[in-house]
């Protein structure tokens, strides 16, 4: 087992996480006790370890809030192009330690908690994982948010605030069992509810065409309630926002006509609307066309686009610029990144808003949409690609089905002009797949409706170009790119293995934490016996820590 540090060794330890200043330590202790008393209404006689965790989380959060507000003020003043990352999954994990590291508070908090007679690692272990993802796709989204904040980019993450995230796995009597991930059971100190920005999302209904344009009528409304979580960059005072939507039934949900019995049932039926954000679907390596899943996909897209357009219209220069036509600057100020096909409905939804609400001509609306949207492809497995039943679309999103049909008609007219008489090519490239049932190919919709398409590894991107979307690549090769998946070295090196980070920093400095190319400098020490010995020592200590942790976990 790893030899624990003595008190003097621990307090003398200096690492890339920063040196704890006495003023910082005193302030953190004061803030910790204030939150314990006034936020949690506890004292040391009755407080539990979970109370101490929440007191520390609120203390660290206090250091975020000012930076968070100033970052948004800066974006309003400068009006940069904003990036909106749409993903049905954000596997954020735990927030406390990552925030302390990015704000440079790790050592100060460690010292303050030590002086209070508590153990920082024990408090960190109490935090529930925000497991709102299944694996690579969701963790990539989380790493992108961290990276964009660390680069100082004006970026927003948009997703769903699932009440139950990825299920927990435990060993019981020698067998693996799954149980629900009730991660919000004790509350979430990092999020801020924004009921003032609650938005309506429409489902079902019918479409009526008039001289003034198409109208989507008699819809069922679900409200989207935003919860904002700060995303701090690494030691740069930038704090971006991840906005997750929670489904709420409107107060008049099914209450137009009722007697006492109907009223009780109507209140109970609210759960049907709120089920949209109840649970994260398990890993979808095999696509299943469930109506709830389609509702989730449209729910996040509809709420997000309303929010994006509201922010664009209220921006300092966006739609208020009297010199330029409304929405002329939209692609210059708004970027929408579709993380796989799950948010593909952003394309027909943006078209619906521009056509039916903003009254743009089709050609202009389409140009704005294509220049705004970009698509990341995550899978080339045929069984995992989304293909939604036309019948389900017709029932749930009738206006969007009309728009998708029109997109496909114009798309096939273009292909037909380029390849006269090539019916097989038209069939392969169509957004609508004939058959029983007739289905919509969401990946084709993403490719046609985006100005950029990328795979997530070099070999993957080559397969995308040469196989999966070869017909599309032949026509528009400039549209296809590769963006190899990366990870944030702050969480996956500095946080997970601080000993290794310290050894590296002693040799090449700390720039590798924001620029992984700096690690190439380690090649200069490939024959350095002292450096090799230090690495071996870190590896041995780390292995013992992992082994001890596994023994404790399985024995419990």
From TrEMBL:
Family as reported in the entry's similarity comment: Belongs to the glycogen phosphorylase family.
InterPro entries to which the protein is assigned, alphabetical: Glycg_phsphrylas, Glyco_trans_35
Entry keyword annotation includes Transferase: yes
Protein name: Alpha-1,4 glucan phosphorylase
Glycosyltransferase found in the keyword field: yes
Broadest EC class assigned to this enzyme: transferase
Assembly notes: Homodimer. Dimers associate into a tetramer to form the enzymatically active phosphorylase A.
Record lineage: Eukaryota, Metazoa, Chordata, Craniata, Vertebrata
Function field: Glycogen phosphorylase that regulates glycogen mobilization. Phosphorylase is an important allosteric enzyme in carbohydrate metabolism. Enzymes from different sources differ in their regulatory mechanisms and in their natural substrates. However, all known phosphorylases share catalytic and structural properties. Allosteric enzyme that catalyzes the rate-limiting step in glycogen catabolism, the phosphorolytic cleavage of glycogen to produce glucose-1-phosphate, and plays a central role in maintaining cellular and organismal glucose homeostasis.
Organism of this sequence: Huso huso
């Amino acid at each position: 087992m790893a030899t624990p540090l003595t008190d003097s060794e621990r307090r003398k330890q200096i690492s890339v996480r920063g040196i704890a200043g006495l003023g910082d330590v005193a302030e953190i202790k004061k803030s910790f006790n204030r939150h314990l008393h006034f936020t949690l209404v506890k004292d040391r006689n009755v407080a539990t370890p979970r109370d101490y965790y929440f007191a520390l989380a609120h203390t660290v959060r206090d250091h975020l809030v000012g930076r968070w507000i100033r970052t948004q003020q800066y974006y309003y003043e400068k009006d940069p192009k904003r990036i909106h990352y749409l993903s049905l999954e954000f596997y954020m994990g735990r927030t406390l330690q990552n925030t302390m590291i990015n704000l440079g508070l790790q050592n100060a908090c460690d010292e303050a908690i030590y002086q209070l007679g508590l153990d920082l690692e024990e408090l960190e272990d109490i935090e529930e994982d925000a497991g709102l993802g299944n694996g690579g796709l969701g963790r990539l989204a989380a790493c992108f948010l961290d990276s964009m904040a660390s680069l100082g980019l004006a970026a927003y993450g948009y997703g769903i605030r699932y009440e139950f995230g990825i299920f927990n796995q435990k060993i019981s009597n020698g067998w693996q069992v799954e149980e629900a991930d009730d991660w919000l059971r004790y509350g979430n100190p990092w999020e801020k509810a924004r009921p003032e920005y609650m938005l309506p999302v429409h489902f079902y209904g019918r479409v009526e065409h008039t001289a003034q344009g198409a109208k989507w009528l008699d819809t069922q409304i679900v409200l989207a309630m935003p919860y904002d979580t700060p995303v701090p960059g690494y030691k740069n005072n930038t704090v971006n926002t991840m906005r997750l939507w929670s489904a709420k039934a409107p107060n008049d949900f099914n209450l137009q006509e009722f007697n006492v019995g109907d009223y009780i049932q109507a209140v109970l039926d609210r759960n049907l609307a709120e089920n949209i954000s109840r649970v994260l679907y398990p890993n979808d390596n095999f696509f299943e066309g469930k109506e709830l899943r389609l509702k989730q996909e449209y729910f996040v897209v509809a709420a997000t686009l309303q929010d994006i357009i509201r922010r664009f219209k209220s921006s300092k220069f966006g739609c208020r610029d009297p010199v330029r036509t409304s929405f002329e600057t939209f692609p210059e100020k708004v970027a929408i990144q579709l993380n796989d096909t799950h948010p593909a409905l952003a394309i027909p939804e943006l078209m619906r808003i521009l056509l039916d609400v903003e009254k743009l001509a089709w050609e202009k609306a389409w140009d704005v949409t294509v220049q705004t949207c970009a698509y990341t492809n995550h899978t080339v497995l045929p069984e995992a690609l989304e293909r939604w039943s036309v019948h389900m679309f017709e029932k749930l999103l009738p206006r969007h089905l009309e728009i998708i049909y029109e997109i496909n008609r114009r798309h096939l007219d273009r292909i037909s002009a380029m390849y006269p008489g090539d019916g097989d090519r038209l069939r392969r490239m169509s957004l609508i797949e004939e058959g029983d049932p007739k289905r919509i190919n969401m990946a084709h919709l993403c490719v046609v409706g985006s100005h950029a398409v990328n795979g997530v590894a070099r070999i993957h991107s080559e397969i995308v170009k040469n196989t999966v979307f070869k017909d599309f690549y032949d026509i528009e090769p400039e549209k296809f790119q590769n963006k190899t998946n990366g990870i944030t070295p702050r969480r996956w090196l500095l946080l997970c293995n601080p000993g290794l980070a310290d050894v590296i920093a002693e040799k090449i400095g700390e720039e590798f934490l924001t620029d992984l190319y700096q690690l190439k400098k380690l090649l200069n020490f490939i024959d350095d016996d002292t450096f090799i010995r230090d690495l071996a020592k870190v590896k041995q200590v780390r292995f013992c820590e992992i082994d001890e942790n596994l023994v404790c976990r399985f024995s419990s």
